[in-house]
Each structure stands twice: as C-alpha cells, then as structure tokens.
Amino acid sequence: MANAQNLTPSLGLSDQQGATAAAAAAQATGEGESVDANPRANWNNANYGPIANYGPVANPPKAEMDELPPFGANLFEGGFRGAMADGLNAGYKVKPGDQVTLRAWGAVELDRTMAVDAQGNVFIPSIGPVQVQGMSSQQLDAQVRQAIKNVYPQDVEVYTNLQGVQPVGVFVTGYVDNPGRYAGTPSDSVLYFLDQAGGIDQDLGSYRQIRVERNGRTVATVDLYDFLLDGDIQRPQFKDGDTIVVEERGPAIAVTGDVKREYRYELTGQQLSGADVTRLARLRSGVSHVLLRGDRADGPLADYVPLSEFGSRTVQSGDEVLFSSDQRSESIVVELQGSFFGPSRYVLPRNARLGELLDAVSVPKEMTSVRDISILRESVAEQQEEALDKSLHRLQTTYLGYPARTAAEGEIQVRQAELIERFVQQASQVEPTGQLVVSRRGQGLADVRLQDGDVIRIPETNDAILLSGEITMPQAVVYTPGMSVDDYIEQAGGFTPRANDDEVLVAHRNGAVVPAGDARLRAGDEIIVLPRAPTSNIELGKSITQILYQVAVATKVALDL
C-alpha cells in the first residue's frame, strides 16, 4: 500500500546498550565501591518464579476457606423432598406391615389383599401361613406360588403383587439445618430425608461423612461426592426409628481460578494428589498453570507449576489451589474495515506491525483514502474514558460543596450545581471511540505494533464536509477546494445563539481533531462547533469548555447543553 513502505520503526536499546546501561547504573550506586550483582535467590525456581497476574498485587492473599461454598452446595435445590419412593424397587425386602395382593384362578379361586404380620407371614386361606419377610418381590412371588401348588399341584394360576409398604419415621440429626423426625418409606434415598431436614449445614456439615444408625450401630456410610461426581449413592433400606447423622466437616482445600465453579472441597483423609483435585475441579479450557499455597511443617509453601506437573503434587488440608490460564498466545487477531480486497480478519504474529499488514492488503486505488487510515483500539477507548471520568470528578470536587456567604450567593451556587450535575450526567454517558491517530503530517503512517482486537479503518474517499454542533443548519455539503471553515459555517446559516465561536474544531477521518484555525480542510472532514458554557463563572466556563473539547476529541460529538 501507499505510504506503508516508508514507515520508520520505533527505536529500542540493543543488547549491548542495555548491558552498558546496567553497568553504569551499578557504578552509580556507590563511590567506586564494588557491587555484588549476584541475585539473592533463584528467581526461576518454584518458590520465587513468576506467578499469575492478579492486578494491583503480585502475590494475592490466601483465599478465605469459609467464604467459598462447599462442593455440592446446590445439591438440595433439586427437590428431593417432593419425590417419595413407592418402595417397590428391585432390591426392596418385604417387612411386617407390607401389603401383598394375591390372585389365583383355576383349581382354586382367590382374590384378596394380605398384610405381612408381625412374624413375617402372610396367611392364605386353605393354605395357611407363608413366611415372606426379608424376600424381594420376585422371591415373594415364587414363595407364594410354590405354597399354593403344594396343595393344588394342577390347573392353578397364581399372581402376586407387593402393593404397598409400611411407612417409616427416620431421625435426621447432626449438622443439618432442621434436625427432626421425618416420614418416608424404607426405600427412600438418604437425599430425601436430608432434604426434608433442610439440607446439610454449608458452613459446618460434611458431605462425605453421613452415617445411618440402627440400634446403636452403623449400617451404612454415605459419601455424597460419589453421587455428585458419578451418580452413585448408597441405598440402605430404612427401618422405623433409624437415625441419619451428618458429621462435622472434615479437612478441606480451597479451589479457585479458572474452574467451572469455585468451591471448598472436603477431604476424606489429610491429603490427596493434584490429579484428584484436577478431577474434582472441572477445569476451564486453556488452564496451563497451578498455584499451590499452604502451610507445611517446615514453613509456608508457595509453588507455581505447569498443569502437567501438578498431578504428582500432594495437596493437604488448608491448601489453596488456584488454576490459571497463564499462557500468552503467540498470535493476535485484527480486523479491517472500509475499502479493501480480501478477508476482513487476519491472524498475525504477536509482534506484527501496521506496515507489514498494509503491505499485504490490496485496495482499490482510486477509491481509498490512504492518508485517513486509523486504528480503533479498546485500550485507547478505556484510557479516554478514564481521563474523562477524572475530569468530571475534578469538576465536581472543585465547584461543588462550597458554603454560601449570602442568600444570593447560595441561589447562584444552587443553579451552578444543577448545571454541573446535568453536564456530568450527559458527559458520563458518552462512549469514546478509541481511535488511534497513526497518520503523521508529511511523514506517512506510523509503523505501530498491532494489538489483539485492533480494528484498522481504511476509509473510502469522501467528497463531503459534515457540519455539526451549534450550527443553525447542521448538514453535509460537497467539499469545495478553497473554501474555509468560516465559509462552510456561513453557508449553513451561521452559528446558533449558544455557539462558542472561539471553539470550532475540525475532525479529520484519521482521528485527528485540531482547532479550525490550524486546520487544512480536506474532503471527508467534519466541522464541529462547541456550545458556550451557560455560566457567568469564568473559571467554571473554562473547565466545562475543556471537557467539551475532550469529549469532541474522543467521540466526534459536541454535547448539547
């Protein structure tokens, strides 16, 4: 492209110059004294190497263990209490109080519902008692069928059905929100009864040590992590008077960073491997490093290791594990807008410059305004917004809050405060464009290094001049060589009564904004007339005008006061 070949790269110190500068700095630390340049620590080992970027602090404070929710905190939002079992699963064992439906036809006719008595029997007319306690539904059918065939060996058909089960009351205690006795069926899940009790206490309760007690002995131990991770759960058959005990939370670790959810994970012992932690944490894509922090017998530990090495590390109770996506991409993506041939997005090396990209882009020669090329950059927009916020804050702190000495002065200050607040509200809503000016007068384009997300604008030629702001008839007119800024304004009806005719700006399409007196008009420019600050306070008027100018540079818009 035109101008792209004549770009001058930015200067930097060579390696030799850098070494010389370092030596000079070392000599400047004393009057001819020798300086020990050896480092006090190995800055590349696990304890002193670089760690992830945490913003304003290089070494983040250790996560508060109790501030993280426990893994499984949302388990009891699933509505287990609203789904009571019917007690007829394949593993259910018949017990006294259950109801059995019996139908027989042929040599004998029977149709009745029988209860399992306290001895575990069902009584069949003409047959007698049949022991069924402790049997499954299939075993029950076979036992009753055999008892009937022993008396009527031929021409008889038998059908049995375990119709209903005896309800049970189960005590739920320990670290749950609402300890108590809750009704259910023998085949209900532990989760059903825990949900009835309001779930596990998130601060103190254990998700891994839950006991089912019967007559003073433990008949089952439930680890809810098996259910959360793999869907497996112990299914003890409850009896009336059983007790579910949720024990106190055991040793735990904190897992934060680039994971699906940040949780406090409970341990069954005092330690586990890094591979186990990785399996529990459900990492986000792109995780490359792990920060492991904790206390050991020989002192505090802080290791920052690649993810591939973390699997063999030992994680102990009280440790914090922070997963981090800490690999810098060696490529960037930039976008083209405007007049060009070919694709609109390019993947480039991280150190790519504007000149080499433009050299690779073809444009329609007669339709492209090369000198108006600019870059829209997110970081520039953020800087513009930050600078504007500071100016507005300075305006408020400078002119608001002064005590009035007289009633008239107080009335003036009230009107002035209303003006400032209205102006601040309008100005704070503008969105800077982040346009970076890369065109240098008479020197072509600056060969700047591109950044990820940059939008390079290559505008088409434009024969219009746009007039905006405090002009009687804002409009776009055809560019006429030789006409001045005043000529265009006069042609558009002149200034409005609110115009500040000393603050007329010309915005070039390459992003440069200059006072009208210093501008060389060209096709595609915009003439912006700023409003006069509606105040008799000279200093306040100057401050508002300065911010109006700042807004016009960042957004190409003249605020309406």
Overview of this structure, please?
A hairpin with a 5-residue loop joins strand 6 and strand 7. This protein has a 5-stranded mixed sheet, with helices on one face. A 5-stranded mixed sheet has the order 12-11-17-14-15. It starts with 14 loop residues before the first helix and ends in a 6-residue tail after the last helix. The relative contact order is 0.09. It has 11 helices and 29 strands. The N terminus is likely disordered. The longest helix has 22 residues. With 561 residues, it is an alpha+beta fold. The protein is elongated.
Could you give the topology of this structure?
Blueprint: H1 15-27, E1 99-106, E2 110-115, E3 121-124, E4 128-131, H2 137-151, E5 156-164, E6 168-174, E7 180-184, H3 190-196, E8 205-214, E9 217-222, H4 224-230, E10 243-248, E11 252-257, E12 263-266, E13 271-273, H5 274-281, E14 289-296, E15 299-306, H6 307-310, E16 314-316, E17 320-324, E18 331-338, E19 345-349, H7 354-359, E20 374-376, H8 378-399, H9 407-427, E21 435-437, E22 439-440, E23 444-445, E24 455-458, E25 464-469, E26 475-478, H10 485-491, E27 499-507, E28 513-515, E29 526-531, H11 538-555
Parallel strand pairs: 6-10, 11-17, 18-24, 25-29
Antiparallel strand pairs: 1-2, 1-5, 3-4, 6-7, 8-9, 8-10, 11-12, 13-16, 14-15, 14-17, 18-19, 20-21, 20-24, 22-23, 25-26, 27-28, 27-29
